[in-house]
What we know:
Layout: E1 6-9, E2 16-21, E3 24-28, E4 33-36, E5 41-45, E6 66-76, E7 79-87, E8 90-96, E9 99-111, E10 114-133, E11 143-163, E12 170-187, E13 192-210, E14 215-227, E15 235-236, E16 245-246, E17 251-263
Antiparallel strand pairs: 1-4, 2-3, 2-5, 6-9, 6-17, 7-8, 8-10, 9-10, 10-11, 11-12, 12-13, 13-14, 14-17, 15-16
Amino acid sequence: MTKLLSVIIFSGFAGSIVLAQNTQTVVAKPGQTVVVQPGQTVVVAQPGQTVQVVQAAPKPASSGPSVRLHAYGTYALNDNHVDSYYSATSYFDGSVKGGFQYGGGLEVMPYPAVGIEFTYLRLDSKAPMHYWDPNAGIGGGGAEISTDFDMAQNWLLLSVNKYLPVNPKVEPFGGFQFGMDILNVTNPDKDNSSGATKFAWGAKLGVNIWASEKVGIKLQAGLLSAVQAIGGGVYFGTGGAGAGVSGFSTYYQVNFGGGLVFKLR
């Protein structure tokens, strides 16, 4: 059968036409006109024959929650207000630079418009700081030092995402995130480093634009924050990274970008 409508005029012998669509069966006698719709089955039966029309079984619906895979590529903006002051000889003041941030996420959707996502993000950037070094200066009496620290961040986040499907192609969403930021800071002048793990939280807004049934393009904006007062400090100060003043300044990161989203099931 073609997908076009067809008209069959059955005449000339004492046969029958059996026309079946879904569960409906129509028997046409000789001389009758039969209009065939797309998707219908036509069987010509000889006198005395028994015809059984078997319909294809419907495709079973997918069982279990939907699963999505996310690929992220965003640009993080600078945070120019990172500082900690204990005294005139125990402080740091500077910024954490932004840059290209990348990562991925695996999401399980227990409900059609709600997802639980585990996300990993990585950012390598600089942290220009002014800090007091008591061993610097004339006679080792102390002086303020400026250093561009190398800073690596690994975000591990659990997100609760809410989707608002406008139509099959456009899907706005929002999400709240919480987890940890694993930081490592290296002083290139002194070749030493320190690390810390911070409580982190975040929020994001965006839209998925589905290019096909399984693949979509993601556009989003987000805010991430590492609460540096939780779990110890990243060290800037005496001796550079690795010794000195511990950081208790909360860090905020605004990011823009997007990525791809894939429906795995």
